[in-house]
Amino acid sequence: MVKEYVYCPRIAYFKMFSVYEPPTESMQYSKNLTLKYNEIVEIVNQNLGSGYSVFVEVFVKSKKIGVVGKVDAVAINSLEAVPIEVKLNTSPEKLKKIALHHLAQCIAYCIAVEETFKKQVNRFLLVSLEPRAVYEIKVGVALREFIYRISKEIDKMIAEEKMPTQTPSKRKCAACFYRKICIR
Ligand code: SF4
């Protein structure tokens, strides 16, 4: 729900209180990363070095921020865990300009990986397989604090059952499934 809340708090509210949204194309689309395992291992070896165990499509959970989800891949050695977010059909330029709501989800998953594997997460990899591109993003204090704040805001929204304000971006509203019940 972190991603939705950061994109528009009202979408998180509608989803949380069970206003049904049919699955979009991207929701239905499976990355099927077990078939890409060797490519991911190659990327890990080239960008992180050898000595990492690699797992794909990993379920993670954080009690601290109330997040449950599936991470595309995680590379683990004795010192750290490095989550990996894989994009299949994107350009390196688009990959680099990661949207804030997408970044927020990645950081929330980093916190969940840390809790699930009990390993420090200092960075994650944003990866495009075709064409090949890899960006490393540091998981610093400011990004963590941002997610803790969002998590508290979501908890408050749920506890109070109070509809949050609309996103100021009308561009988002134009393509939104909820616009008929949201904008009156
Ligand atoms: S219509 Fe706009 S404000 Fe309402 S939920 Fe959708 S994006 Fe958010």
UniProtKB/TrEMBL annotation:
Its cofactor is iron-sulfur cluster; Mn(2+); [4Fe-4S] cluster; Mg(2+). Keywords: Antiviral defense, Exonuclease, Hydrolase, Iron, Iron-sulfur, Manganese, Metal-binding, Nuclease. GO terms for molecular function: exonuclease activity; iron-sulfur cluster binding; metal ion binding. It comes from the Archaea. The keyword rRNA-binding does not apply. Residues 55-182 form the PD-(D/E)XK endonuclease-like domain. Mg(2+) or Mn(2+) required for ssDNA cleavage activity. Its EC number is 3.1.12.1. It is an enzyme of class 3 (hydrolase). Pfam families: PDDEXK_1. One of its GO terms (biological process) is defense response to virus. InterPro entries: Cas4_exonuclease (IPR051827), CRISPR-assoc_prot_Cas4 (IPR013343), PDDEXK-like_dom_sf (IPR011604), PDDEXK_AddAB-type (IPR038726). The keyword Iron-sulfur applies. Belongs to the CRISPR-associated exonuclease Cas4 family. NCBIfam families: cas4. CRISPR (clustered regularly interspaced short palindromic repeat) is an adaptive immune system that provides protection against mobile genetic elements (viruses, transposable elements and conjugative plasmids). CRISPR clusters contain sequences complementary to antecedent mobile elements and target invading nucleic acids. CRISPR clusters are transcribed and processed into CRISPR RNA (crRNA). This is CRISPR-associated exonuclease Cas4. It comes from Ignisphaera cupida. The lineage of its organism: Archaea, Thermoproteota, Thermoprotei, Desulfurococcales, Desulfurococcaceae.
